[in-house]
Amino acid sequence: MKSLMLMFALFFxxxxxxxxxxxxxxAVGEATIEKDKMVIQDAYTSGGLSxxxxxxxxxxxxxxxxxxxxxxxxxxxxxAAPNNTTFRQTTNYDYWNQKGVRxxxxxxxxxxxxxxxxxxxxxEDIKTKKQIYNNSATTSIxxxxxxxxxxxxxxxxxxxxxxxxxxxxxxxxxDRNTRGRRTVKEIYMMDFDGKNVxxxxxxxxxxxxxxxxxxxxxxxxxxxxxxxxxxxxxxxLMDMRTKSASILSNKEGVNSGAVFLTGGKKIAxxxxxxxxxxxxxxxxxxxxxxKITNHFAxxxxxxxxxxxxxxxxxxxxxxxxMIYTMDPRGTESNVKRISFVGQFNATPRFSPDGKEIVFxxxxxxxxxxxxxxxxxxxxxxxxxxxxxxxxxxxxxxGEFIAFTxxxxxxxxxxxxxxxIMDRDGGILGAITSGFGNCISPRWYNF
Length: 446
Known about the structure:
The protein is mainly beta and 446 residues long. It folds into 2 domains: 2-29 and 253-444, Neuraminidase (6 Propeller), CATH 2.120.10; 36-160, TolB, N-terminal domain (Rossmann fold). Helix content is 12%, strand content 40%. The chain is built from 4 helices and 30 strands. Strands 1, 2, 3, 4, 5 and 6 form a 6-stranded mixed β-sheet that branches. Strands 9-8-7-30 form a 4-stranded antiparallel β-sheet, with no helix packed on it. Strands 10-11-12-13 form a 4-stranded antiparallel β-sheet, with no helix packed on it. Helix 2 runs parallel beside helix 4 (144-160).
C-alpha cells in the first residue's frame, strides 16, 4: 500500500524536504506577558587575569545575554555601555529606572588559585531596588559555559518561578561521518544553544530514533549496521555513565521508535516481528513484551505523556498516516484519531505537561509543523512559507520547539539543520551549521 510505504519512509527518516533560504519570524500566536527590559553589563575583571581568562569573562557575558535572548516574550535585552572601572560600582537605581530597565545583571571575574577564576553574578530588580540573585563559583576556563548556564537558570528561576532551558541538552543524529556511498549516522549531544557538541555513538552504521530516560541515565536507539548481507534494524540501550551499549531487542524486522515509559523501567517500541508494525511495551530487565496496539494497519512512532496515561502514535488505519491517541495501559477500545490535516502526518510528540502534541503534516508538497491539544481540539499551524519541517520536540519547560528543516542546495546536495522556535511558531534560528545533515532532535533536561 502506497500510504504504508510512505509512513515507513517517514519512520526511517529517509525523506527529503525543501527549505526557504530566508530566516523570518512566523507570528502565529500573540505574546501574553509584558516584556521586562534587561541589561547585562560587560564583565568587571581584575588585573591578575590572563588574556585567555579575560576573554572567558567576555564569553560569559555573551552567554548570559544569549541565554535570556531566547525568551523574547519575557525579556527585552539591551546592550550595556562598556565598563570603565575594575570593580563593580554601587547601583544607581534612579538612573536605570529612568531608562526603563527592570533587571540589571553584572558579572565579576577575579583571579583564583592556579589557573582558576572566581565568577560572581549579581542580578538586581531595579523596580524594588533589591538583589534577586547573588552567586559565586570557582571555575576553569573550560567550565565557564556550564557555570554561566547554571547561573542564568538561577536568575530565571528567581524571576519566573520555574526552571529555564539554559541547562538543557539536545540529543540528535548527524551524518557528518558519511564518506562516499557509505552512509554513517551517529548520535550527538549539544547544549540547547548548539554549543559544546559531543559524539555519543561510534557504530559506523546508521543510527536512528534516539530517546533518553528522564534522568539522563540511559539512551535507547536503533541501529542498522553497515555489514554485508542481511541488515536488521536492532534496538540498543546505552548506559550514559559508562558509555557501554548492548542490544535490547533484535527480533526479525524493525526494532525501533522506542521511548521510555514513566519510571524508566519500561519502554514503548515498534516491532514488526508479527509481520505487521505494532507498538509494544517492553520491560528493560526481563525483556518481557506486552502488545499495546493490535490492528491490521501499521502503528508506529509512540510518544508517551509524562504521567504515562496517554500515548500518541502514527497509524495507517484511515489509509494514510494520521495521529491517534490511547491509554497505553489499556486496550484498543480507547483508541482515538485526533489529526485530520494534510495528506499524511509524522513524528507526533507530547509537550512536557501532556496537554499538547506537536507534529508534522505533509501539506502543499512540503512538511509543516502543527500543534494540537491532546484531546484533538485547537489545531494551530506553526510553520508556513519556511520550507519543509519535521521532527519536532518540546523543550523541558514547554516554551520552545526544536525541529529539523532542510534546504536543497542543488540536485545532489542538501543541507539539513536543527532550528528552534517558540511554542507559537516564532522561529529563533538554526542551532546547527556545517555539522552534516542533522535530524531527530530530542530535548532533555538532566
